[in-house]
Amino acid sequence: MNILVNGDKHDVPEGTTIAQLLSRLDVPARAVAVEVNLEVIPRARHAEHLLREADRLEVVSLVGGG
Amino acid sequence: MATTTQADTSRRKDSLRIGTHTLASRLIVGTGKYASYELMSAALAASGTDCITVAVRRERLIDSRGQNILDFIDTSRYTLLPNTAGCFTADDAVRVARLGREILLGLENAGADWVKLEVLGDTKTLLPDPVATLEATEKLVALGIHVLCYTSDDPIAARRLKQAGATSVMPAGSPIGSGQGILNPNAIRICLEYLKQDDPDYPVIVDAGVGTASDVTIAMELGVDGVLLNTGIAHAADPLQMALAMKAAVEAGRLAYRSGRIPKKLYATASSPETGTIAPKPR
Fold it and tell me: What is the pLDDT of residues B169-215, one digit of tens each?
């Protein structure tokens, strides 16, 4: 199924969880936040939250800023 | 000696309270625009700050093995203040604030309960959109997030933001990154009067526009509770020395404000006794 992560298309297997996606993308789970279709999904639910076709994700972290 | 000790004790107790947070330093420093993370880390330490701002951005999924700012920040030493920089609508600012809170909760950092709200009007001036800023403040307050609100030096806007529940109102001295200093001290004075009326401990921070140490001192002498700056240190030719200068400046300005300056007078007043001179006065 196709999902959108940070504006880019990704093809992932049915039944992929957020935790599996982060692992697949080689994103260090430490200190990222994930939003699915404009809703923040708390880290404690990453392992159980199943992604769906056409989901739009934002995976964000901290950078320098003022 | 006793006087010195009293003064030192008084200074130690003069901490800055913003919402649930008590900060020892009245300087809040940004983490952007340094030549390297190593330099950032050293400059933050030199500034004496215990509160630093950070931004929330898309994780780089292609090259995520690049340096992470968190490897250069001791999150047990600094309270992080996540910002909503780069947002132009209230809804986007609320999204970014919630994402920032989620990251800080994961880090178990005390800064998870607050945000530096920035809702900008355009990219050229980086001035705040007053209507969207007010709307975002109301939404974030409803979510239980403490809002430290970047705004212009407009006293009416400042008052509306406080009425909407902002934990701190943070008028800009001049445009972000411009280094123009405090362009309208009288407007800041009126902001202070309106915001602190019947509420003298309400924290007011000058956020943005500071170019050098004297700008910080001028802001503090007006009676603001703290100064938030980034570019003034990060883009100085020697950021480490400028960080030390800013630290001294915020302390000097605060001490001078608390000391009660003398009024300005048109004519001179002699410091030495006017009687007993051996020289006759001119007529």
Answer: 999 999 999 999 999 999 999 999 999 999 999 999 999 999 999 99
**Rounded to an integer, what distance in angstroms lies between the CA atom of residue B130 and that of residue A24?**
42
- Indicate the angle between helix axes B155-163 and B130-142, nearest 10 degrees: 20
Cβ separation of B107 and A31 shorter than 8 Å? yes
Q: Which of A28, A32, A65 sits opposite B30 (nearest CB)?
A: A65
d(CA B22, CA B32): 23
* B1 has a pLDDT exceeding 50: no
Complex prediction ipTM: 0.96
Nearest CA in chain A to B118: A66
Q: Does the active-site annotation cover B116?
A: yes
pLDDT at A30: 78
Could you give the CA distance from residue B148 to residue B226 in angstroms, rounded to a whole number? 12
B58 and A62: CB-CB below 8 Å?
no
Q: Which of residues 197-216 of B touch A (CB under 8 A)?
A: 208
Q: Which two tokens stand for residue B277?
A: 């001179």
Q: Is residue B151 within a helix (H) or strand (E), and if so which, with residue range?
A: strand B146-151
Q: Which of B13, B116, B162, B247 is flagged as catalytic?
A: B116
